[in-house]
Amino acid sequence: MNPLLGRLQPYPFARLRELFAGIAPPSHLAPISLGIGEPKHATPEFVKTALTSSLGGLAAYPATAGEPKLRQSCAGWLQRRYGLALDPATQILPVNGTREALFAFAQTVIDPAGEAVVVTPNPFYQIYEGAALLAGATPWYAPSDAARNFAVDWDSVPADVWARTRLVYVCSPGNPTGAVMPLDEWRKLFALSDRHGFVIASDECYSEIYFRDEPPLGGLEAAAKLGREGFPRMLAFTSLSKRSNVPGMRSGFVAGDASLIAPFLLYRTYHGSAMSLPVQAASIAAWDDEAHVVANRDLYRKKFAEVTPLLARVLDVKLPDAGFYLWAGVRGSDTAFARDLLAQYNVTVLPGSFLARESAGFNPGAGRVRMALVADTAECLEAARRIVQFVESNPQYAIHTEFQTP
């Protein structure tokens, strides 16, 4: 067996099952899960139609590079969304969702013979850590600073760590915090990349769910604004899962530096990562349409506008920049909060400490819980009401000192 498998830590949902072992939630309350970030809004009918009408493509092997029409569709979306002009043939590559691509990319860019470091935000999407470990690299956890809207503290990374860094994962909008990385932070990270030569993988799968008028800044967009022609040492990763409510399609693309796309394509060719032709056809339909994205975003905006004020009565929580998570602060133990909430009100949330690692003596996810508002508004509102009742009944978890106990 690959000995590196022994370095992997249990996935958050495995830890959650262990945490909940032996709990018997109240049977008179229907279970509500805010734990998993799986979109529950309806898949657009025209995407389903494009998929089913292309089933004849199952009779052919697809090319790993994807059909030219799909790459052109992705390029068109980048032009409309960010004002960027990329070469579909050399700067864009379809992938089977961002999860597998983020993992595979580390295997492509990390030299297993070296002593490489992979820098990741903390808290973070767990694939970053697993990808680093199985590539033979050492993860370094750069904490998010709650006092700066959960911006990653790049300055906390020592110079000797940067010197050994080969890959940096960025998640903007962030999972779980929902924070968007501003241009000045990109400028700082690009300067570090120029100095030390590391590659940047920008995970942007939540970019189309946002709550303010201006859409989130993308990594390639930031590079273009700063005059970084050709997007040196950088790829952006995006997906249809959240944008178009098709998580089961496993469809996305990467874009950026052509000198990174070429070896990544080579790796994926051997890995057998081609996207089926029916999924490519459905993906083209989805990338070419924006009306369903606007409608989906409106659903999230209305939902968050109703749910957030309720929870803010008892927890430290506010509207995020983007994404479909609330990153709520609780008093005391986040794991005890999650366990007691399930036991008393049959609502599942994910402890923030499960999404982070202890570093420099603290876990930046501790004392917070992630709530995925992916179900319909009525179900999310019911969950919020139960959480309020739970905290009112257990005031040791209330974060606001002005909260009045019953």
Could you characterize what this model shows?
The chain is of the alpha/beta class. It folds into 2 domains: 3-42 and 292-397, Alpha-Beta Complex (Aspartate Aminotransferase, domain 1); 45-290, Aspartate Aminotransferase, domain 2. Helices cover 39% and strands 15% of the residues. The protein contains 14 helices and 13 strands. It has helices at residues 12-19, 45-52, 68-82, 98-109, 127-134, 159-164, 183-196, 219-225, 241-244, 258-271, 277-287, 291-312, 334-345, 377-393; strands at residues 32-33, 92-95, 117-122, 138-145, 151-152, 165-171, 199-203, 234-239, 252-256, 325-329, 347-348, 350-351, 368-372. The strands form 3 sheets. The protein has an 8-stranded mixed beta sheet, with helices on both faces. A 3-stranded antiparallel beta sheet has the order 10-13-12. It has a two-stranded parallel sheet with strand order 1-11. Helix 3 runs parallel beside helix 11 and helix 12 packs parallel to helix 14 (377-393). It is globular.
* Fraction in beta strands: 5-15%
Average predicted confidence as pLDDT: 96
Shape: globular
* CATH architectural category of the largest domain: 3-Layer(aba) Sandwich
* CATH topology heading of the largest domain: Aspartate Aminotransferase, domain 2
CA-based gyration radius: 21 Å
Total count of helical runs of at least 4 residues: 14
CA(first)-CA(last) distance? 57 Å
What number of domains? Answer: 2
Detail the poorly predicted runs. Answer: 401-406
Order of secondary-structure elements: HEHHEHEHEEHEHEHEHEHHHEHEEEH
Q: Helical percent range?
A: 25-40%
Largest sheet descriptor: 8 strands, mixed
Number of strands: 13
Query: Could you give me the name of the CATH homologous superfamily of the largest domain?
Result: Type I PLP-dependent aspartate aminotransferase-like (Major domain)
* Strands in their spatial order, largest beta sheet: 2-9-8-7-6-3-4-5
By CATH reckoning, the class of the largest domain would read Alpha Beta
Helix-strand category: alpha/beta
